[in-house]
Design brief:
The complex is a heterodimer of chains A (about 500) and B (about 120). Chain A is of the alpha/beta class and about 500 residues long. Chain A is about 45% helix and about 20% strand. In chain A, the strands form four sheets. In chain A, strands 2-1-3-4-5 form a five-stranded parallel β-sheet, with helices on both faces. A five-stranded antiparallel β-sheet of chain A has the order 7-6-10-9-8, with helices on both faces. A five-stranded parallel β-sheet of chain B has the order 2-1-3-4-5, sandwiched between helices. The longest helix of chain B has 13 residues. The relative contact order of chain B is 0.17. Classes of the chains: A alpha/beta (about 500), B alpha/beta (about 120).
């Protein structure tokens, strides 16, 4: 409930006012000026009804004093008197009174005036409150807020802005912002200001500031044009310190490059020892070093199978690292998809038969298409190989090749264990072989489909899968006949070959 | 009898290639880096060189350039590499250095033998 202080030396008047107001307000009273000051201090009322004629300090003086004190100046004061002279009213207004009531008091008028003054006071308080809140937000925002004139002078700046430059706020006022921009970025700064002035859109740029102490700061500027009430343009600019962000970004990039380089070097290094192992085994198996027994043959063949598997794993890691870093070379030439699919099916037929699987090829005649033959073969082999791997004996694998005016489509359908919905999303992400829950273990790097996906994307195509757990799986990819080839970074081993001395 | 020079910094690979070539009834000579190869090649006068790519020391391009400078641009050379070449690189290798065939590591012995036979023909 709002508080009203009634100041009057006449107890009868006090009683009447109290009676009229106490229904809606909490009413306090004071019999003279001194008492009024004490009460104001104690209970800080929302409004004061002040009698003019009082002994010792009169109403005008009380009003004047209250209005000159910072703490009480915002309390609305209504002067109440039986004086009706025009000069008295002027005197009251000059003393700072907010309103004026004549005795005898019309109680309806009193109610209306009190209500409206209290409303105004509430608005003023709200305004003050939001102004304070705005100042706090402005000053403690994590970004520096600058207001620039059209010539780039600092007109206003928040606390964080001062921190960014390393100067107190007052020292920044009216300074030219360009004096804090490094010379090589002055052009950027100029463009930022002219851009903001000429466009209604937000302008942003990244540049380096030299702070007051000489240190450098990498910042992002976001500017927008505003107009003051009189139509003067000014540029509001938020400045964010992105030094750490940039540093982290550079480190991250470097770490990623190192990873790729490491993968590439290590894969090449691993292939080197595999080379003599593999060749010696082939020579032994071919009888170069004399007859071998059946048991020796079985043993050597087992070693061969495993060096072969190791070589494929290394190949996957190498392909993955090349695709990741964009140094994979694509040899795009016109080729026959029919031939590629036929060869792939032929290559893996033996594997399918060994597992007692039927493999069917359905194809229509496809016009020549420009692709990397080896890479597309790799994708088809991978998909058929997966189908064989995840289908139990007696199953059927269907390879279907078709096309329309724009695309060639290859489908590899199996009757295997299928893939659960929750796992489908993982399929094309690195190192995510969907293992144990499937109750059987399957070898592999978990990179095959990731590589397939990248290869197809590089051909401007799409790869997808439809599957239900236990119901078999269909992998489908399509590649367009015409697509723009991206310029890949090509790392030439011929002309840039380096090798660390081991 | 044909003479084959084998250049590879990995001794086991060099030894393996030597064994295979000897099985094919070729005479062999081994060098373990580019400098050694360039030093010996005039005296050995090989019919074919099996040259490793990415050896420490001299770069492959430098070895091939110096060979050309020696007037041995017509020498038959097969590159044995752990990395596959792009069509672009193959084109440069063919037009500038007369290199016609390649073997990638790890290699299939039968395939290698066939390629060597074809190149020597």
């Amino acid at each position: 409930m709002k508080k009203i202080l009634v100041v009057d030396d006449e107890p009868f008047n006090v009683e009447i006012l109290k009676g009229l107001l106490s229904k809606n307000y909490c009413v306090e009273t004071a019999a003279n000026g001194e008492e009024a000051f004490t009460k104001v201090k104690e209970s800080s009322p929302d409004l004061i009804l002040l009698d003019v004629i009082m002994p010792e300090i009169d109403g005008y003086e009380v009003c004047r004093q209250l209005k000159s004190d910072q703490k009480t100046m915002n309390i609305p004061i209504v002067m109440v008197t039986c004086l009706t002279d025009r000069n008295d009213r002027i005197k009251a207004i000059e003393a700072g009174a907010d309103d004026f009531l004549s005795k005898p008091i019309d109680w309806i008028e009193l109610g209306a005036r009190v209500k409206s003054l209290l409303k105004i006071k509430q608005y003023l308080e709200d305004l003050e409150d939001s102004k304070n809140r705005y100042i706090k937000l402005y000053d403690f925002a994590p970004a520096g807020y600058f207001t620039f004139t059209r010539d780039g002078l600092i007109r206003e700046v928040n606390l964080s802005g001062g921190v960014i430059i390393g100067l107190a706020r007052q020292e920044l006022m009216k300074r030219e912002f360009r004096t804090f921009v490094v010379p090589e970025d002055l052009e950027l700064w100029g463009r930022q200001i002219s851009g903001a002035l000429n466009n209604r859109d937000e302008q942003s740029c990244e540049l380096t500031l030299k702070r007051e102490d000489g240190s450098r700061l990498f910042v992002r500027l976001n500017s927008i044009l505003m107009e003051t009430k009189d139509g003067t343009p000014e540029i509001l600019t938020a400045i964010t310190d992105i030094t750490q962000l940039k540093k982290t970004e550079t480190e991250l990039k470097r770490a990623d490059e190192l990873k790729t380089q490491f993968l590439s070097v290590i894969s090449h290094e691993m292939r080197t020892p595999l080379t003599p192992m593999n060749a010696q085994l082939q020579m032994m198996l071919a009888g170069y070093f004399g007859e071998i027994t059946e048991k020796q043959r079985n043993s050597l063949e087992m070693i061969m199978r495993n060096t072969g598997r190791l070589d494929r794993l290394i190949g996957d890691v190498l392909d993955f690292s090349k695709l990741e870093s964009g140094v994979m070379k694509f040899n795009m030439v016109p080729a026959s998809m029919n031939e590629i699919v036929q060869n792939a099916v032929e290559t893996l037929k033996i594997h399918a038969l060994n597992k007692n699987l039927k493999i069917i090829l359905k194809e229509e005649k496809i016009p020549p298409i420009t692709i990397d033959k080896d890479r597309i073969t790799q994708v088809i082999l991978n998909l058929i190989h997966n189908a064989i791997k995840f289908t139990d004996a007696g199953g059927v694998i269907e390879v279907e090749l078709s096309c329309n005016a724009e695309n060639v489509t290859v489908k590899v359908k199996d009757t295997g264990i299928g893939i659960g919905k929750e796992d489908i999303d993982k399929l094309f992400k690195p190192f995510q072989q969907l293992d144990s829950s499937y109750g059987r273990k399957y070898e592999g790097s978990g990179l095959g489909l990731v590589i397939c996906n990248r290869i197809i994307i590089n051909h401007g195509g799409k790869i997808g899968v439809e599957s239900e757990f236990g119901q078999g799986t269909v992998f489908i990819f399509s590649i367009p006949f015409i697509h723009e080839v991206k310029e890949e970074k090509v790392e030439s081993i011929m002309f840039e070959d380096t090798k660390s001395e081991v | 009898m044909t003479k084959i020079m084998i250049v590879d910094d990995n001794r086991d690979i060099a030894q393996t290639l030597k064994t295979i070539m000897e099985m094919e009834n070729h005479k062999t000579e081994v060098a373990y880096n580019g400098e050694e190869f360039l030093g010996k090649v005039d005296a050995v006068k090989p019919d074919l060189v099996l040259l490793d790519v990415m050896m420490p020391g001299l770069k492959t391009k430098d070895i091939l350039t110096r060979l050309k400078e020696k007037g041995l641009g017509d020498l038959k050379i097969m590159l044995v590499s752990v990395v596959r070449f792009s069509d672009e690189e193959k084109h440069i290798l063919k037009s500038e250095f007369n290199i016609k065939d390649y073997v990638t590591k790890p290699f299939d012995v039968t395939d290698l033998v066939n390629r060597v036979r074809n190149t020597l023909r």
